[in-house]
Amino acid sequence: MTKMIMGQARVLATASDYIGLGTLASLLVVTVFIVPLAQVASLFASWFLPMSRKTRERNELFNEVLSAWQYMEVYVMSIVITAWQISGVSEFMINAYCGKLQRTFTSLAFYGVLEAEDAQCFQVGATVEAASWLLVAASVLLFFVSKFVVSAARQKKQDDNTPISKRLHTDRWTSTRSADETVRDEDEEGSSSNGSGSSARKIRVSPVPPRFTDFFSFATVSRQLIQTPPQAVFHNGVDVETAVLSNGMKDFVNANTWD
Question: From CA 24, how far away is CA 18, in angstroms rounded?
Fold first, then answer.
């Protein structure tokens, strides 16, 4: 494709054509070939290489810039659609001016000089070769790899910025849409005496959006960490009692001696 564009510039042989078509060819090479390769390298580096938090943030920003300039799927779709539509478009462009030659083409096709599909002034036939289907597969694979790695990096960043104690029961660390829901409370005493003890109240529900572990649960391993809470032994005469301490009593026990 780039050779065809530059060949057209050489045929026209003007400075403006060289500049315009050369810029178009350069953008085609950069956005279709160089940028996708750079994005693949960035994604693999983010997944396999150990990085500090600052380096990871820079790599995420770099990958976001590359994804904005990556047009391989646009190029592939244009190839498929052009190969599908070019035959009919080319016939409409030229054959409308060849009405006087229609009888000649019909006679040549009747006597076997020309094939039936060749009995016309102009037609361009295009087919999608195997290399184009490889580009289609590569663009689809790049899309899913980018979705996979970027989602994992985004959840990693959220988990690093959110304490463990707040990850499951709060959504302050993520942007969500809240909605008002009406909840009815059943008053047992009122229902037993009056028969109608239900009251309605509104609460604000802020659902946590799906994350990487929700979309790609097949690629994760679940591990449950069991932590034994601190204990203190109290001697009460001959009896020994063991109490599980809450977080608020740790300092109190550490600062006192129990006999």
Answer: 10
Joined together, the tokens standing for residue 143 give 């899309």
Element holding 43 (H helix, E strand) = helix 35-48
Check residue 167 and give its pLDDT: 61
Token reading at 137: 């597969």
Quick one: DSSP state of residue 249? G
Q: Which amino acid is at 37?
A: L
Answer positive or negative: Cα dihedral of 77, 78, 80, 81: positive
Q: How far apart are CA 147 and CA 84, in angstroms?
A: 30
Asked if 66 and 32 count as a contact pair (C-beta separation under 8 A), the reply is: no
**Rounded Cα distance, 187 and 195, in Å:** 10
Q: Chunked in runs of 10, what are the mean pLDDT values of the chain (259 residues)?
A: 83 88 89 93 92 91 92 86 81 76 85 81 80 87 92 86 65 47 49 50 64 82 61 47 43 42
202, 182 in Cβ contact below 8 A?
A: yes
Distance between CA 93 and CA 81 in Å, rounded?
18
Angstrom distances, CA of residue 21 to CA of 3, 17, 34, 69, 124: 11, 6, 19, 19, 23
Question: Residue 1 and residue 29: Cα distance in Å, rounded?
Answer: 10
Instruction: Write down the domain spans for the chain.
Output: 2-165, 178-219, 227-259
pLDDT given for residue 113 in this prediction: 85
Write down the pLDDT at residue 53.
87
Radius of gyration of the chain (CA): 35
pLDDT of residue 219: 80
CA 39 distance to own-chain centroid:
13
- Cα(17)–Cα(8) distance, integer angstroms: 8
